């Protein structure tokens, strides 16, 4: 089925700069505050019981409202939503940096999450509707994928520098120049293609059910980390999430203009992307969390040294995304990039399971980081492109939101699940080795490292599962070539008629 070739926007590469800058701001904000949290807690007198809310308030608002943000972008216009998200994020960051007490800081974090939920899907959907030619799309998503994968590590570096040499408030204030430059550039440069909006009325029941369901799910994993997996509140939240999300699916199958058209997630290729990305982020979050503590507490690195230690991983992600993923995406099938990419990342994680009290950074940690970065960069690049390709332009926002939702939910699950595994392994090791311990402090460190290593072993398995899902579910052909296998396996897509671009999904 031939497709009308859209007019190429001559300013599209300039637009990519400002879209990528906004994405970097959102991604690094997820980790930059982690480094500053101890200082902020001390300065504002936040209790140990409440400090998690600095992270949780953002995660709940961001994760719970992403589908709403994606639908608003489709309805209201992606450029307008993008600039509104940037402006709101800057104001919320200013409020957080100036916070005089705990309540103001938590409110600012929730506002950041709200505006981030508008910003993230509109950024990715702008990219999806701006770059439609296969080779250009590969380059653009290579850059975007590198930023999405490496932004968290950049946040650790920047957070360390700002906290150590200035103060924790600058981890919020630093967002303001990012947002001002990105919003100004977007206003002057970005052109949204005509006819790509979805004028249907907003699905209010879908918004309420999706938001409450995702908030319950994310909060359930947060409570599992602190209260235990079998605690009453934890089980109650998981049960509520299951009921609400099931009701959401039922409502979406009935309403005329659904918040999440089921055709977006019913396609096996996009479903494979969402599932594998969510699992990969579980492993990534576990690595950042445990290696940050390991380097600072066990190896006695400063915050800046800790951030710099992650730089090789960032370099690996950029190389994997722009030099491997982008170059090969137009030549081979996506699953032949994604599955091996996740396996290489799992190999790097496997190396890092061998950490102990006197591990050498150059001999063991550095190779592990490089493999992790190369693998993730190679896998993320085609995943970002495939997740939004093959959908109608009017669904681009919500398809983009699903990418971010899978990553946000994966991050919440990863933090809670792997932290619980590490804590249990630490306690078990300390108990079994207490009798023969030479020093209580030494035993504490040994137990901690054993816990981290155990959790990283689990992360290895999760990354391998992500690779298996990508290889099994994602069967579209390489861009520009027909894929008989994909055509025969995806008969349901043909039944959708005009709802989707025919196979191959990545050929536009």
TrEMBL record:
Residues 481-508 are annotated as: Disordered. The chain crosses the membrane at residues 15-37, 52-70, 82-100, 106-129, 141-162, 168-190, 202-222, 228-251, 272-295, 307-324, 336-355, 361-384, 455-474. This is MFS transporter. InterPro entries: EmrB-like, MFS, MFS_dom, MFS_trans_sf, Sugar_transporter_CS. It is a multi-pass membrane protein. PANTHER family: BLR6921 PROTEIN (PTHR42718:SF46), MAJOR FACILITATOR SUPERFAMILY MULTIDRUG TRANSPORTER MFSC (PTHR42718). Its main location: membrane. NCBIfam families: efflux_EmrB. CDD domains: MFS_MMR_MDR_like. The lineage of its organism: Bacteria, Bacillati, Actinomycetota, Actinomycetes, Kitasatosporales. Residues 15-478 form the Major facilitator superfamily (MFS) profile domain. It comes from Streptomyces bugieae. Keywords: Antibiotic resistance, Cell membrane, Membrane, Transmembrane, Transmembrane helix, Transport. It holds the Pfam family MFS_1. The keyword Cell membrane applies. It is found in: Cell membrane.
């Amino acid at each position: 089925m031939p497709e009308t070739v859209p007019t190429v926007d001559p300013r599209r590469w300039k637009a990519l700069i400002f879209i990528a800058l906004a994405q970097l701001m959102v991604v690094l904000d997820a980790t930059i505050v982690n480094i500053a949290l101890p200082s902020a807690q001390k300065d504002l007198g936040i209790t140990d019981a409440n400090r998690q809310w600095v992270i949780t308030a953002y995660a709940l608002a961001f994760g719970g409202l992403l589908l709403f943000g994606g639908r608003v972008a489709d309805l209201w216009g992606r450029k307008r939503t993008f600039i509104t998200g940037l402006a709101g994020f800057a104001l919320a960051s200013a409020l957080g940096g100036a916070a005089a007490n705990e309540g103001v800081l938590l409110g600012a974090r929730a506002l950041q999450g709200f505006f981030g939920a508008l910003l993230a899907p509109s950024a990715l959907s702008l990219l999806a509707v701006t770059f439609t030619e296969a080779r250009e799309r590969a380059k653009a998503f290579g850059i975007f994928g590198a930023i999405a994968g490496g932004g968290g590590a950049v946040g650790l570096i920047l957070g360390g520098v700002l906290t150590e040499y200035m103060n924790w408030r600058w981890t919020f204030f630093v967002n303001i120049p990012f947002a001002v430059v990105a919003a100004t550039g977007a206003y002057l440069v970005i052109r949204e293609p005509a006819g790509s909006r979805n004028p249907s009325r907003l699905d209010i029941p879908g918004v309420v059910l999706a938001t409450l369901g995702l908030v319950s799910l994310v909060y359930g994993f947060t409570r599992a980390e602190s209260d235990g997996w079998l605690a009453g509140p934890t089980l109650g939240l998981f049960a509520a999430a299951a009921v609400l999300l099931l009701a959401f699916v039922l409502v979406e199958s009935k309403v005329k203009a659904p918040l999440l058209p089921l055709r977006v997630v019913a396609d096996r290729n996009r479903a494979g992307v969402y599932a594998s990305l969510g699992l990969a982020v579980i492993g990534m979050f576990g690595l950042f969390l445990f290696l940050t503590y390991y380097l600072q507490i066990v190896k006695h690195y400063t915050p800046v040294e800790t951030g710099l230690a992650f730089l090789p991983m960032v370099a690996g992600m950029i190389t994997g995304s722009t030099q491997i993923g982008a170059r090969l995406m137009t030549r081979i099938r996506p699953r032949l990039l994604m599955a091996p990419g996740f396996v290489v990342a799992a190999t790097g994680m496997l190396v890092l399971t061998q950490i102990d009290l006197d591990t050498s950074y150059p001999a063991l940690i550095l190779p592990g980081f490089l493999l992790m970065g190369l693998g993730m960069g190679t896998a993320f690049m085609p995943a970002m492109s495939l997740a939004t390709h093959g959908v109608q332009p009017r669904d681009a926002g919500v398809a983009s939101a699903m990418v971010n939702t899978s990553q946000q939910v994966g991050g919440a699950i990863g933090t809670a699940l792997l932290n619980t595994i590490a804590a249990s392994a630490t306690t078990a090791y300390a108990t079994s080795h207490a009798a023969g311990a030479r020093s209580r402090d030494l035993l504490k460190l040994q137990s901690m490292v054993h816990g981290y290593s155990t959790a990283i072993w689990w992360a290895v398995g999760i990354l391998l599962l992500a690779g298996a899902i990508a290889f099994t579910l994602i069967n579209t052909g390489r861009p520009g070539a027909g894929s008989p296998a994909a055509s025969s396996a995806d008969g349901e897509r043909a039944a959708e008629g005009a709802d989707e671009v025919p196979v191959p999904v990545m050929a536009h």
